[in-house]
Amino acid sequence: MKFVATYSHHSGVDVWKERELYEWVTDIFEAPKVKIGQQATSDIRSHVKTELEREGWAFNVRVDPESDLTVFARSGDLVVQVQTGNISRYAYDILKIQHLYSKKEIEAAALAIPTKDAAQAIGSNIANADRIWNELNIFDRVVTVPLMIIAFE
Q1: What pLDDT, in 10s, does the model give residues 21-71?
Q2: What does the alpha-carbon distance between residue 121 and residue 42 come to, in Å, rounded to a whole number?
């Protein structure tokens, strides 16, 4: 796996840079031992979790005490969400992140997703950075959370 690019929605990249976490979080996706392909999802998620755990991040954090909805990882007022599944799941990820932002529980988030080519290698109809970035631009008045999209392959 390798880091390809970031996209900044509502200055999301700036938040990570201001906190001096940009290089750290994007470097997580420089992992040559993690191979992209079918059945790679668990390896990708495990690798990211291990790296975040080293820095004390909490996992499967509830977005509301009244539900079982969770985000992948949270540390203070930041969230990291990893999506390597069906394209329909990313909108749900964005909704959960936006909810936390609207409640003023977080200041920013990062959503890590494969490039279009990597998504095709993982499986069919997998979330990909190109499509998500295009759709976020359409919904820029609805999705207001500062969000950094991390594209990897």
Answers
A1: 999 999 999 999 999 999 899 999 999 999 999 999 999 999 999 999 999
A2: 14
Cβ atoms 98, 145 nearer than 8 A: yes
CB atoms < 10 A from the CB of 52, how many?
A: 20
Percent of the chain residues topping a pLDDT of 70: 100
| DSSP for 80-136, written as a single string | EEE--SBHHHHHHHHHHHHHHHHTTS-SEEEEEEE-HHHHHHH-SSB--HHHHHHHH
CB atoms inside a 10 Å sphere around CB 84: 24
Instruction: Spell out the domains of the chain, with CATH numbers in brackets.
Output: 3-152 (3.40.91.20)
